[in-house]
Amino acid sequence: MVPRGHVATYGQIARALGAPRAARTVGWALRALPAGHRVPWQRIVNAQGAISLAQGAGGAEVQRALLEEEGIVFDDEGRIDLVRFGWAGPDVAEQAELFGQDGGVGADCAEQ
Fold it and tell me: According to a count of CB atoms within 10 Å of the terminal CB, is the N or C end of the chain lower?
């Protein structure tokens, strides 16, 4: 999970899941989250460090407010400095725990 005060890109999450070309799918999955979920969706931004949600519909404003509450700073163009606030990604042990030793399928699925 992307820690508080950091952001990751859609592409970065796709690569961590073993699907480097699935950045858009990550976005679709985040938009499909049910109400009441606990996924920190606001911490995922585009490769330029900007919010990809449309302005005016409320989502982009909510995302920015949530990130600012975590101490993330936006520049004058609405971008986040990914060098300063970007997440380095899960360590090997964390990724193995999340996805199983096989790197994505999961131990239970791999046995079947």
Answer: C
Nearest to 13, CA basis, from 41, 36, 38: 41
| pLDDT tens, position by position, 57-108 | 678 999 999 999 999 999 999 999 999 999 998 766 666 666 665 544 444 4
Element spanning 83, H or E: helix 82-85
79, 66 contact by CB (below 8 A) = no
Give every CB contact of residue 107 below 8 A, 6+ residues apart in sequence: 100, 101
8-111 CATH, one of 3.40.50.1970, 3.40.50.300, 1.10.10.10, 3.40.50.1000:
1.10.10.10
